[in-house]
Amino acid sequence: MAQQSVVNNNLANVSTPGFRGELMAFRAVPVEGDARLPTRIASMMTTPGADFTPGTISTTGRSLDVALQGGDTWLALQSPDGGEAYTRRGDLQVDATGLLTSLGNPVLSDNGQAIVVPLGAT
After folding, report:
1. Residue 20 near residue 88 (C-beta atoms within 8 A)
2. Which SS3 state, helix, strand or coil, does residue 22 take?
3. 4 falls in which pLDDT band (50, 70, 90)?
4. C-alpha to C-alpha distance for 84 and 42, rounded to whole angstroms
5. According to the model, what pLDDT value does residue 77 have?
6. 102 strand-pairing partners
7. Please, are residues 100 and 81 in contact by the beta-carbon 8 Å criterion?
8. What is the per-residue pLDDT for 76?
9. What is the dihedral of CA 84, 88, 91, 92, to 10 degrees?
10. Per-domain boundaries in the chain
């Protein structure tokens, strides 16, 4: 059921910009306890991470849509708790004050400052 849930989530988000599929694997582990036999093993589910294989880049015509090339390229965002978070989602927005955002979180520059776009510049 867990693997079906992971596959279902991956399929449901296949067209979500910047989504990376969750990977799932099983590994063999020895059976522990009094009844263990050297010929018996159990399977354990593990989630080794996400698939960061670059997806296809589509042209949207929107001036604030960006595509990040390479599996190690990320946008830094200010998280709701004031920390730093990372995303590959590139459908950016500018709010009423000129703050550049992704999913409502401010996009940060290389020096960790929120990026403000001059009003009317987009």
Report:
1. yes
2. strand
3. confident
4. 40
5. 96
6. 105
7. no
8. 95
9. 30
10. 2-50, 58-122
